[in-house]
Design a protein that fits this description.
With 507 residues, the chain is an alpha+beta fold. Helix content is 31%, strand content 23%. The chain has 16 helices and 18 strands.
Length: 507
């Protein structure tokens, strides 16, 4: 993947993008004892598994304080341990999982969490009529049944090695909400869970406030009284707020900010490598992008090493797949930067190409949009940029109202469910629209594989097909960064890019 002669021009553009942060001091905050303040990049779209759509990293940070999944996953040991469930077992057929729940779990309104809440949550996601965006990831599950108050049984359509990662996920499908609150239509904006903190208030675009749950089953591990999640979309403002003491914790993926913070002795740097990737989806359903030559031309015009250097300042790795260190797929058929080959493909296509790219109106979104525009212009493709807010981007992507759009594959101990959902022709999450009968068969074989060796080999094969079809580009692999002030202790490195502040303490 050579950098090519265009790197110096792109570096120059990157220098132009880098504006020196204006030093300013935010007013000192009057902190309550036991109060933690967390700076978020965006607001949350909602907490309901149907109405809320997807959490994203911001939503997951807040969700972890309010609701919990059945089991806990440790990204360091890569092992599962009890959380809402005390034990679980798989029958000899490999298609029937039985979970036994704690009998002392209460929702924040005092009502008991039972197997009926768990079953209702999963069956609602799995109901096609609900159109949950989480369904494609877990629809190897046929259904869930509450056998009694503390026993829930999941029946699978076939043996599925991806089952446990999704029982432990802290994205939308894993955390268990109150069935009554969901049925009352309140969960999206007034979430009711059984987590270590309970919802207090949400001022859209400004803040979300949670307070300690005195009835939490592991209350002794929680030392904070209150957490205020402050929405601070501008990266430099968020960083300045951390420096001034206005907030205690921030997540960021901005290369300039990360490099500044790493050199600051007053801050604690947290970093974790993982799977997943920053991606760009190409809509292969119609127009020029329905033609493989055009998509491959875009792939060859895209200089990922330059993008990683300019936008991330090498704080993320160059990625040829989204599997991280789970398995080594070699070059995975990656179409590297080669503008001459891009021009030849476009000449063979023989028609002018004009496209639009939807991206977030964040600095990150504007930068990748502008770089993509420059790279495509260099090979003869006109690209119009359409900056939108995060919620609009998600809505347009799921409605397939884009030519090119920035996206992300989330970190996970098993990337199989995301790969399956992205490529199957019958998946609501096949956002690029690219599929073939052969790819359908490959995805199904991966999903039903009974050994991890076979499953991972097929994940590499699917990644190779995605690269060769140029339905998705990568612009940085899974490496995640967060920073805290030195008065904050007990915050682990950000798993899945989301900062877990539930066990934080303040010295």
């Amino acid at each position: 993947m050579p950098h090519g002669h265009g790197l110096e021009n792109l570096r120059a553009f990157g220098r132009a993008l880098t504006v020196a942060a204006v030093a300013f001091a935010l007013p000192a905050a009057a902190f309550a004892a036991g109060e933690l303040r967390v700076g978020l990049e965006t607001d949350v779209s909602g907490f309901d598994a149907v109405e809320g759509g997807v959490l994203g990293q911001t939503g997951e940070i807040v969700m972890r304080t309010l609701q919990e999944p059945l089991v806990r996953y440790d990204p360091d040991s890569r092992e599962y341990s009890p959380l809402l469930a005390t034990e679980w077992e798989l029958d000899d057929s490999g298609t029937r999982w039985t979970f036994r729940l704690r009998d002392d779990i209460r929702f924040h309104d005092g009502s008991p969490l039972t197997a009926a809440d768990v079953a209702a949550h999963y069956n609602r996601i799995l109901d096609p009529a609900q159109k949950s965006r989480s369904r494609s990831f877990i629809d190897a599950i046929a259904g869930a049944e509450a056998v009694d108050a503390t026993t829930v049984v999941f029946t699978l359509k076939h043996p599925w090695l991806g089952f446990m990662p999704y029982m432990a996920t802290t994205s939308m499908s894993g955390p268990i909400p109150s069935r009554a609150n969901v049925e009352a239509g309140k969960q999206n904006r007034s979430p009711l869970g059984s987590g270590p903190f309970r919802f207090v208030e949400w001022t859209p675009g400004d803040r979300i406030v949670v307070e300690k749950n005195p009835d939490y089953h592991d209350a002794a591990s929680i030392t904070l009284d209150r957490i205020v999640f402050k929405v601070l979309p501008d990266t430099q403002t968020r960083f300045a707020a951390l420096k001034s003491g206005e907030v205690d914790v921030i997540w960021t993926d901005r290369g300039q900010t990360i490099r500044q913070a790493e050199k600051d002795g007053d801050l604690v740097a947290l970093q974790r490598a993982g799977a997943g990737a920053e991606t760009i989806l190409l809509n292969a359903r119609s127009g020029p992008l329905a033609d493989l030559r055009v998509r491959q031309a875009i792939a060859h015009a895209f200089n990922q090493p330059a993008v990683v250097k300019i936008i991330w300042q090498d704080t993320k790795p160059v990625a040829v797949d989204a599997l991280g260190d789970i398995v080594d797929c070699g070059d995975a058929g990656y179409l590297g930067y080669d503008p001459a080959k891009a021009k030849a493909l476009l000449a063979d296509y023989g028609q002018p190409v004009s496209l639009t790219m939807v991206h977030t109106a964040t600095p990150r979104g504007r930068e990748i949009g502008t770089l993509m525009q420059q790279m495509l212009k260099a090979v003869g493709i006109a690209l119009e940029l359409v900056p939108v807010d995060q919620t609009t981007l998600i809505t347009r992507t799921f409605k397939r109202e884009f030519d090119i759009v920035g996206w992300r594959m989330s970190d996970s101990p098993d990337m199989g469910p995301q790969l399956y959902a992205l490529v199957r022709s019958d998946s609501s999450y096949n956002l690029s629209g690219y599929s073939t009968p052969e790819l359908d068969e490959m995805a199904q074989a991966m999903r039903t594989a009974t050994t991890m060796e076979e499953r991972l080999a097929l994940q590499c094969a699917i990644s190779t097909e995605i690269n060769q079809a140029a339905s998705q580009l990568h612009w940085g692999g899974g490496r995640f960064h967060a920073f805290t002030s030195r008065r904050v202790k007990g915050v682990p490195p950000p798993y899945r890019g989301a900062v877990d502040v539930t066990r934080a303490r303040i010295d």
